[in-house]
Design brief:
- This protein is an all-alpha fold and 59 residues long.
- The chain has helices at 6-11, 16-56.
- It contains two helices and no strands.
């Protein structure tokens, strides 16, 4: 679909009120997944480091 101007692109042929919130929600969910994965990885790495230190201690 080709648009005549940038304003026409932004209005999306009258469907902008449906299109842009859908894009915003999709981006928000993707960013949330990325942040959650980073948080989970950090927690896992800390747990593994603690476990490694605990197991390396002489009994």
């Amino acid at each position: 679909m080709a648009f005549d101007s940038f304003a026409a692109f932004l209005t999306m042929g009258g469907y902008a009120k449906y299109v842009w919130p859908a894009w915003g929600l999709a981006v928000l969910i993707i960013v949330g997944f990325i942040l959650w994965a980073r948080f989970e990885r950090r927690q896992l790495m800390q747990a593994l480091t603690r476990r490694q230190r605990r197991e390396a201690r002489p009994s």
